[in-house]
Amino acid sequence: MKLIDHIRDIKDFPTPGILFKDITPLLGNKTAFAKAAQELLELIGDQQIDKVVGVESRGFFFGGVLAEKLNAGFVPVRKPGKLPHTTVSQTYALEYGTDTLEIHKDAIQPGDKVLVHDDVLATGGTAQAVVKLIEALGGEVVQCNFLIELSFLSGKEKLQGQDIKAVITY
Questions:
Q1: What DSSP state is assigned to residue 27?
Q2: Which residues are catalytic?
Q3: Is residue 65 within 8 Å of residue 38, measured between CB atoms?
Q4: Which parts of the sequence belong to the Phosphoribosyltransferase domain (predicted)?
Q5: What one-character-per-residue DSSP string does 7-23 give?
Q6: Is beta strand 113-121 parallel, antiparallel or unpaired with respect to 51-55?
Q7: CA dihedral for 22, 24, 25, 27, sign (positive or negative)
Q8: What is the DSSP secondary-structure string of 54-108?
Q9: pTM of the predicted model, to two decimals?
Q10: CA 20 to 30 Å from 47, out of 24, 41, 113, 117?
Q11: Alpha-carbon span 105 to 82, nearest angstrom
């Protein structure tokens, strides 16, 4: 089974000129979903992970699964106003505008070994913002882990010094 066969292209979403990689067919296929989770887990190897940070919202799909398999905590990073407790925030640029992400101030403890997970690495702005949030709280990012990397958008450049892994690269 090829995971790439379960990802469809959606033209002009969310804005004109963007070719969106839709993973919902992969999520809806139990065999593809399980294979993707296993391949994401294999990218981590035997590294110690205390927390998995999943990025809103598609980073939640596999982030929770990875946390459970790694015997780690799961920490959601969300858009402003979605987390109920005291937060810290980071604004960042993305391929079609700007946005802001928040994390609970007490979600990461100093010295926590953290895996950042999201569905897609595009321009790198989102992942860079998440790394900054984790480091501001004293966490150590062990790996940035993605289902898909859009290498032609050069997102890795914003994550220099980070261990970046992806299951599928376009």
A1: H
A2: 58, 95
A3: no
A4: 32-148
A5: -EEEET-SSTT-EEEE-
A6: parallel
A7: positive
A8: EETTTHHHHHHHHHHHHT-EEEEEBSTT--SS-EEEEEEEETTEEEEEEEETTSS
A9: 0.94
A10: 24
A11: 14
Distance CA 154, CA 163 (A): 15
Report, as an integer, the average pLDDT of 156-160. Answer: 96
Q: At residue 34, what are phi and psi to the nearest 5 degrees?
A: -65, -40
Q: Can you give the pLDDT at residue 14?
A: 86
Token pair for residue 127? 């992942």
Query: What's the fold here for domain 47-169?
Result: Rossmann fold (3.40.50)
pLDDT digit string (tens) for 71-124?
999 999 999 999 999 999 999 876 566 899 999 999 999 999 999 999 999 989
Q: Where are the domains of the chain?
A: 47-169
> For residues 44 and 70, is the Cβ–Cβ distance under 8 A?
yes
Q: Give every CB contact of residue 106 below 8 A, 6+ residues apart in sequence.
A: 85, 86
Cα 53 from Cα 44, distance rounded (Å): 14
What DSSP string runs through 118-151? Answer: EEEESSSHHHHHHHHHHHHTT-EEEEEEEEEE-G
What type of residue sits at position 29?
Answer: N
User: How many whole angstroms separate alpha carbon 80 and alpha carbon 88?
Assistant: 10
